[in-house]
Amino acid sequence: MIRIAGLGLVALLLAACSGQTETAGAAQAVGAAGAPGTATVPGVPAATVAFEGGDQLSPKDPIVVKASGGTLQAVTVTNPQTGNGVKGDLSPDKTTWTSTDHLRYGSTYQVAATAVNQAGAATEQRGEVHTIKPSGVATPALFQSASGDFGVGLIIGLKFDHDIADKAAVEKSFKVTSSPAQDGGWYWVGKREVHFRPKEYWKAGSTVKLETTTFGMPIGGGVYGGQDVSATYKIHDSWIAKADGKTHQIKAYHNGQLVKTAPTSMGKTANTPPRGPTPTFNGTHTVLGKEDHKIMDSCSYGVCEGDPGYYKAPENWNVRISNDGEYLHENLKTVGVQGSDNVSNGCLNMNTENAKWFFDTFNVGDVVEVTNSGGPQLAINNGHGDWAISWSAWQAGSALHG
Hints:
The protein has helices spanning about 165-170, 350-360, 390-395, and strands at about 5, 10, 50, 65-70, 70-80, 85, 90, 95-100, 110-115, 120-130, 135-140, 140, 150, 155-160, 175-180, 185-190, 195-200, 205-210, 225, 230-235, 240-245, 250-255, 255-265, 285, 290-295, 310-320, 325-330, 350, 365-370. It is mainly beta and about 400 residues long.
């Protein structure tokens, strides 16, 4: 709602802006304000001031003040709810003032503007601008923070704190750019989470930037977009490990060249007590994190003390590749069968030297491709199982193409 006192009409001119911030302290003024009211000079029309646009302003759009028959001498815009002022820019001809600070949802802004005519007579205009008050604000968070650099299997994306009703509109507000350019697409994992990946692994040395422009957008059900986020990801050299459950070998490739082969023991497929089969998931995994020393506790996936198959043991040189407790790590108890049999609880066991080499070499986003494990396909919500989805199925997961 807009209320006005003095001369002119009140409205709001729409233009793009994002975020939700104000400048602490007093509102910005342009020039020195004249006396309140209107001063007249015979034969010279008084200047008029208008706040142009419409009712219930979106906070992504600026407050615009215009003078006719003169120039703006002073403009102040204040949010009395926060005590903050709003900065803005004056046009070169001094007839238009446009706010540059980000506005807030559900706020009232008090606007005071003074214009002078050709004779120097002042006209002051005061009014209020009200921004929309949504039923909810859906704020995105990065699926993967941008600290450090990453492997060619990196999956990026967003998680919202509200359900997204209009996924297509929201998806259109996302922007991903890569250098060099690579074909990629979005895939909705649920009502709140969306992932992005290229058709093939990222090219080594790439720079990838993710930006949102959802702030101020209606996204369905009376919900509007929250504060925008952005991140830039650096992709390092290609490191891809290929683990084969039949050969019981894991091979590491650096930029396509084989540099390491190590025997391993994957998850057992035999129905042996007390837990039965615990095969490693098939499919492309990516490194999610690393811990040099860790207590492996089966209770982390539901097999707790007193249950058949419960274990709690210290393990070294742990490279995590799924959310379901799969790691590449040292296991001295299985050294005798590494390279010949799969006996683990799902992890890829190695001896100390080989486990330490993978721990030192592989980092977040690097790839571990598991084949012939006898296990089910790695799911998209079990770490970064995104690469297990065919490109055609991935494209169908977009709100714009599905």
